[in-house]
């Protein structure tokens, strides 16, 4: 694990979800080297999907930009040492899939 404390940049998550995200990042860093950012992101994303339902996205690395739309209460950006982690649940995915499904059902009927 990287030495040092996680520093939260931006979040709108409840405190307990924030702590879960930080704990999962620490656990991921126990399993993977900091250079294995994709594996770290995959680990955190899958654990959040399991704990809070599908639709979570995770980006990890030392240099990236982003502009995302997220569900209210489902966003955190934090750093542990030089590793930055962005974790969010997309807001358009669930509604878009439901609308698409409804449209397909209407066509079949």
Automatic annotation (TrEMBL):
Predominant location: cytoplasm
InterPro entries per the UniProt record, alphabetical: DLC_sf, Dynein_light_chain_typ-1/2
UniProt xrefs under Pfam families: Dynein_light
GO BP term, pick one: microtubule-based process
Top-level lineage group: Eukaryota
GO cellular component: a single term: microtubule
Keyword Coiled coil in record: no
Entry keyword annotation includes Iron-sulfur: no
GO molecular function terms noted in the UniProt entry: dynein intermediate chain binding
Compartmental location: Cytoplasm, Cytoskeleton
Keywords associated with the record: Cytoplasm, Cytoskeleton, Dynein, Microtubule, Motor protein
Record family assignment: Belongs to the dynein light chain family.
Protein name: Dynein light chain
């Amino acid at each position: 694990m990287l030495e040092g404390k996680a520093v939260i940049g931006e979040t709108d998550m409840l405190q307990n979800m924030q702590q879960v995200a930080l704990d999962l990042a620490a656990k991921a860093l126990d399993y993977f080297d900091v250079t294995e950012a994709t594996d770290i992101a995959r680990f955190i994303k899958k654990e959040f999907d399991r704990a809070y339902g599908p639709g979570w996205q995770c980006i990890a690395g030392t240099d990236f930009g982003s502009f995302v739309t997220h569900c209210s209460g489902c966003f955190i950006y934090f750093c542990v040492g030089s590793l930055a982690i962005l974790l969010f649940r997309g807001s358009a995915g669930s509604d878009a899939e439901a609308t698409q499904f409804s449209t397909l059902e209407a066509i079949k009927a």
